[in-house]
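(Deposited chain)
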Amino acid sequence: MGWILFFSIGIPLLCLPAYILIEMTKPKEERWGRSQPNQAVKGSGSGSMKNPPIRPSAFVGLETTQHPADPRTLKPVQGLTEYVPIYSGAFLPAEHQLDLVTMDDEGNTNLQLNLYNGQLVLEAPNGLLPNRSNGQVYKLGIYTGSIRGSAYYEEAVLNADTRPLAKAELVREPGNKYDKNAVAIHASGAGCVGYVNKQNAARLSKHLGVGEEYMAIFTSGCKRGDDSVPVSVLIAPTATMMSIFRNSGIPLPSNGITQ
């Protein structure tokens, strides 16, 4: 009888792989990596688990493409006609913007205009001056910046020639219900394309209000039928603008002012 049991049970068991035999010697609840999820650890608070079940985890990774920053934004290229934004790090810090700038009693200055990254930028002897914000040249009666409110004049902007050096017209709007100091920017043949920002308008309107002559030109923008480039302007007393043009070798434009 014993030999019969050996041949019917023992020999088949010996033929099984060792790891299966080992698993079969374990308690049923522990075979094949199983555990009892509700078995509490002795001495622990309720709800703690001796062998918490192993749950599958999933990691979802999003594939992203990082484009390297355009080096021209921090190191503008002189003479480049393609528009590329210029980051603030390329400009002189506020505390040094006027260090080497001169202006005499007749408004003549040593500032000049140069084309960088598709936009006109004021250049001082020690570096570039901001052409959109954080500029200190307003202390000299010179104003630079992007026009405001152009989204309300999309058709006019599209029909305007706002390329660098195109002339702009300053139109005071003392009856403007939103800002009594409002100064509109008009483009030739297109009408109003936006406004001088509120802070500069408050400064500028005082000069225009007493009859001082100012000139304005676009320093960035597009040809008619295109509005892909932000529009910005340079505004300065006529004598100062003429001085800047002479320093830059730019032909002197004519520019009317409506007050």
Q: What stands out?
A: The domain at 88-248 is CATH 3.30.70.2330 (Alpha-Beta Plaits). The helical segments are 2-15, 18-25, 154-159, 198-209, 238-248.
